[in-house]
């Protein structure tokens, strides 16, 4: 199978990810809480190692700022619901994933004022419009670093600078960019960074993370048992224990650790260079086909490895089904982003989303192009 749906989840994973998950389950998958036996200590050591790897990748200052979650959706819910209260104002965009839009819709009904910035046809917000929408009660910006529909990459460094000068909390959804684009939470003035572990970080599904900058007051998301103060009825107010109650996904976290090590060894800049070269080739070949509509920019530059298209007179879901018959996996539909399709003109059909990964090659792109030609010629 030719797998081109890495925006949903990366596949395949590096071999060491598989191996460490298996080793964990066989040898040390204990709870890392208050137990002092060897395999529990080994578990705690591996979890701390993963925190340290995440800190290193994003230039976070302390491991206590790193909170493990089950996915980016949980991470975003912690950040969004943990800081926004009745009477607050928040600025986000129409290009966000539903894991931002739906919590904001929920909070809007609870008295939180929400402004959703529009984007141009390429998926970019206007910095001028962002500045114009700032109010006295604006509490946060919530920005999708890279669109999961168009691959469009926003200028988070510039937005972070505006947030800092205005005293506004800056929340970044890095689900598509983490592991592909270098991110520096300090230089970019990011207060809260949410991301999944199972995409470009090469970890298994069921893993995610939220970075919460020291000093940012985020309310409790859930209550339960923690590694500290287990004898107290009061829930601890210290990160990460404040948010990490209950049994942790140790096999998933150690698998994520190996994914992070793979990125470090391969070098994130080399990963980016390889995937950009595939995107350049893919877009060039798609542009040769008059019956293909490419959404967003026609360039591989300043985008994650995601291209959304449609084929003339063929429904996106039908096209994905026909590609599957040719052993090619792509995504079709609305890609969990409810509002961007109104701007793209794809409300009634969605798009075909092609997202090559690090383990794809030029031959995979060639096979995809040949398959698209065949599908169109035989429609």
Automatic annotation (TrEMBL):
Molecular function GO terms recorded: cysteine desulfurase activity; transaminase activity
Cofactor(s) annotated in UniProt: pyridoxal 5'-phosphate
Database matches in PROSITE patterns: AA_TRANSFER_CLASS_5
Catalytic function, reaction form: (sulfur carrier)-H + L-cysteine = (sulfur carrier)-SH + L-alanine
EC id: 2.8.1.7
Catalytic EC class: transferase
Positions of the Aminotransferase class V domain: 2-368
Record bears the keyword DNA repair: no
Pfam families given in the database record: Aminotran_5
Keywords: Aminotransferase, Pyridoxal phosphate, Transferase
Keyword Transferase attached: yes
Family named by the database record: Belongs to the class-V pyridoxal-phosphate-dependent aminotransferase family. Csd subfamily.
Protein's UniProt name: cysteine desulfurase
Organism: Clostridium aciditolerans
